Amino acid sequence: MNSEYAGYRNYLCFTVTKQLNNLHHIQKYSDRQQETHDLISSLHSNGLGYRKIAQYLNEQGIKTERGNIWKNTNVYSVLKRFKQRQSRINDVREINYEVDVSSMRVEYL
Questions:
Q1: Any residues with CB less than 8 A from the CB of 41 and at least 6 apart, and which?
Q2: What residues have CB less than 8 Å from 81, skipping those under 6 apart?
Q3: Are 1 and 95 in contact (CB under 8 A)?
Q4: pTM of the predicted model, to two decimals?
Q5: Collapsing DSSP states into helix, strand and coil, what is residue 101?
Q6: Res 21: pLDDT
Q7: What is the pLDDT of residues 64-82, one digit of tens each?
Q8: Cα 27 from Cα 44, distance rounded (Å)
Q9: Greater confidence, 6 or 86?
Q10: Could you state, in order of their start, the residue ranges of all structural domains in the chain?
Q11: What is the DSSP letter of 5?
């Protein structure tokens, strides 16, 4: 080894960046939440309005997740939030990002 370079080490340095959207855990609805959503969705697709659905749920003794009675706004929110969640999962998780590699450089230590 040449004494002029003794003690020095050459390192090739660069950075690789990859952005992913599919590593996040998707929290699933509980069985009760899923059943309630399916019931609300079914009633709504059969032509019932939000007030009638809320009235039906209250008559059946079904409570909201927090144990309250149903109101038309709760029914609307369940349908809206489910649709937003599905859209977010389908749209965002499917995006593929390019791998970003920085320029290479040599460092001496």
A1: 79, 82
A2: none
A3: no
A4: 0.60
A5: strand
A6: 64
A7: 989 999 999 999 999 999 9
A8: 25
A9: 86
A10: 31-92
A11: G
Q: Are strands 16-17 and 100-101 parallel, antiparallel or unpaired?
A: antiparallel
- Tokens 């998780």 correspond to 93
Q: Could you tell me the two tokens for 109? A: 């230590």
CA separation for the pair 98, 79 (Å, rounded):
35
Q: Is the pLDDT of residue 5 over 60?
A: no
Six-digit token pair at 86?
């599905």
Interval 29-67: pLDDT, tens? 888 999 999 999 999 999 999 999 999 999 999 999 899
Structure tokens at 73: 């706004």
Of 97, 88, 95, 96, the C-alpha closest to 27 is 88
Do the strands 100-101 and 105-108 form a parallel or antiparallel pair, or are they unpaired? unpaired
